[in-house]
Write a structure and sequence with these properties.
Length: about 375
């Protein structure tokens, strides 16, 4: 077992770290306040190859491995969790399934511009009645000659405000349960594609979360992703791998909490000495740092598993639930270390606390991750 990063992974770490500090972090608090989508930063991310890190170069990506992707996600999320999730959606939820299930023509038309960052993607699975239970999808797609006619509503879709392309899941055969769901590549300019309510949220405010609704949307039959009835499988396989991105986002948020907490604890003086001189504060910091390191190692192991191919759902679910809960626990302690200042928007901890919470919810709640882990465990014994 080798815990050293390769030269390429180290290069990614240094490049993403510098970019995050110089370009992403400075405007993060302002974007959180204004909810402005980071369009200019994403253009620079595209130049650095961050929009399709693990996609082969022939399809417009950077041709790096999944650990490099996790490292990029960790560094950017350390500076801005909103920018982090946008990158995670484009890389993991859009480029990955196109790479795995797309035809060469679909890759040429959609994957290349998405991986190069010329276009932005979103992943539209969730519906009002289908959250954790994605099999309860109600959106329908009815074949009509060379088209599918799609009707339905998707909610809570990250990047929906700015996305050019969406991977949309819809029922093509009502009688077939999970096997009756199919996946489609949809362009925002397709007739019947509509942007609905833009959500006002607790955190990750610059990530453009919105509703999409489809009214007799005409999707060319050639835009079916995979085969008819394969949509549920595509969704689950995509989410299995995507959890590495969200786990890495958790590591990044937890790292930001630790960095800010150590700095503040050394600066803040009460009772004539820095609060860091108190053992209570030292133990907060020690626990944060220990759990952060464990979350990072689990995330890197998940990334390595995905790189090797094969099923990696147990380890990626472990990484996602552990890193999410590590970030939330760290942020709770971080606010405590900052005292009243931790409750104020003027200080960074308040945003980190709000941003951390989403990690326990999207791409499968912590409860759903535990279902995946235990189901896998029970099969093994
Ligand atoms: C900011 C944000 C961004 C998002 N981005 C996207 C996106 O880009 N694309 C997309 O498709 N979706 C997206 N989502 C949706 C997200 O994935 C869902 O919100 C999530 O999967 C949970 O679904 P739900 O909200 O309907 O909660 P529910 O499924 O209703 O769950 C409610 C509670 O019940 C628990 N629960 C449910 N079933 C079980 C069970 N069997 N056992 C134990 N507990 C259970 C859950 O863990 C949770 O605590 C986003 C959500 C948010 C908030």
């Amino acid at each position: 077992m080798d815990f050293q990063l390769t030269e390429e992974q180290q290069m990614m770490k240094e490049m993403a770290h510098k970019f995050a500090d110089n370009r992403v972090k400075p405007g993060a608090a302002e974007r959180d306040r204004t909810h402005e989508f980071p369009v200019d930063i994403l253009k620079e991310c595209a130049e650095l190859g961050f929009m399709g890190v693990a996609i082969p170069e022939e399809w417009g990506g950077a041709g790096m491995d999944y650990l490099s992707y996790a490292i990029m996600m960790e560094e950017i999320s350390r500076a801005c969790a909103s920018t982090g999730v946008i990158l995670s959606v484009n890389n993991s939820l859009v480029c990955d399934p196109l790479m795995k299930f797309g035809t060469d023509a679909q890759k040429e038309k959609y994957l290349k511009p998405l991986a190069m960052g010329e276009k932005l993607g979103c992943f539209a699975l969730t519906e009002p009645g289908a959250g954790s239970d994605a099999g309860a999808t109600k959106t329908t797609a009815v074949k009509d000659g060379d088209y599918y006619i799609v009707n339905g509503t998707k909610i809570f879709i990250t990047c929906a405000t700015n996305a050019d392309v969406a991977i949309v899941f819809a029922v093509t055969d009502k009688s077939a349960g999970h096997h009756g769901i199919s996946a489609f590549i949809v362009e925002k300019d397709f007739e019947g594609y509509n942007l609905g309510t833009v959500e006002d949220k607790l955190g990750i405010n610059a990530s453009g979360t919105a509703e999409l609704y489809f009214e007799d949307m005409k999707v060319p039959a050639e835009n079916l992703l995979g085969e008819e009835g394969q949509g549920y499988k595509i969704a689950l396989a995509t989410l299995d791998g995507a959890r590495i991105g969200i786990a890495a986002q958790g590591v990044g948020v937890a790292q930001a909490v630790l960095d800010e907490s150590v700095k503040y604890a050394k600066e803040r003086v009460q009772f004539g000495k820095p609060i860091a001189a108190n053992q209570a504060i030292q133990w907060f910091l020690a626990d944060m740092a220990t759990e952060l390191e464990a979350a990072r190692l689990l995330t890197y192991k998940g990334a390595d598993c995905k790189q090797q191919g094969g099923r990696c759902n147990k380890i990626t679910s472990m990484a996602k639930v552990f890193a999410a809960e590590t970030a939330m626990k760290a942020a709770t302690k971080g606010v405590q270390i900052f005292g009243g200042y931790g409750y104020m928007k003027e200080y960074p901890m308040e945003r980190l606390f709000r941003d951390a919470k989403i990690l326990e919810i999207y791409e499968g709640t912590s409860e759903i991750q535990r279902i995946v882990i235990s189901a896998s465990l029970l099969k093994e014994y």
